[in-house]
Amino acid sequence: MKIDWNDIDTVLLDMDGTILDRHFDDHFWLEHAPKRWAERNHVPLEQAKEHLYNLFRSQENTLNWTDLDYWSDRLGMDIPLLKREVEHLIAVHPYVIEFLLFLKHAGKTVWLVTNAHSKTLDLKMKNTRIGPYFDGIISAHQVGLPKEDPGFWRKLQDYISYVPERTLLGEDSETNLATAQGFSIRYLVYISRYSSTVEPRQSDQFATIDYFNRLIPEKGCSSITISA
Ligand SMILES: [Mg+2]
């Protein structure tokens, strides 16, 4: 895929996995929450994992999936408090700040568009201080639909104005890239190194980058090509 930055006005970026290391989230939900739940309910860790993983699966692709109040209720634990126990794992991916500075200098409008709940957003913005690099932040909880919903990208236009044909979206979810494709967002980029602990894998459907420096053109040049 060829990207000429002269053809793009708006950049939409996902948060977890895209600009922030998803190792924090994966570790929290797959290891830390089950560990605390096992201690609290006096059950073996393996049993706690099986129980929680089933609960998580039952809420995939819904707003409950990222709703910390829902999970605090459902699991009988203070999830925001537990997240703070492992907040040292919250990290910005390499080259993200360089890319955001490039976008700013190029005069692009940049929105953080996330399924994350306001309490997760608060914790991550406090830890990374990345908020000021964006023109604004939109949570799917404000929009009322998760990004997995085919209606999301249209409804997003009630909150921000963007021309799909002149917009680039960066995501570590191929499902969300597919719903954006359904709304004709033109430049769709899959982030393969969503966690510092995974081996990157090229998407079969979307142009793929490991790090955002791949989208920064050489000086004096406005376009780059990435493999699709
Ligand atoms: Mg993500």
Can you characterise this structure?
The protein is α/β, with parallel strands linked by helices. The strands form two sheets. It has a six-stranded parallel sheet with strand order 4-3-2-5-6-7, with helices on both faces. The mean pLDDT is 97. It starts with a strand and ends with a strand. The chain contains nine helices and eight strands. The longest helix is centred in the N-terminal third of the chain and has 19 residues, at 23-41. 38% of the residues lie in helices and 14% in strands. The protein folds into two domains: 2-21 and 91-225, Rossmann fold (3-Layer(aba) Sandwich); 24-88, no CATH class. Helix 1 packs across helix 2. Magnesium ion binds at residues 14, 16-18, 172-173.
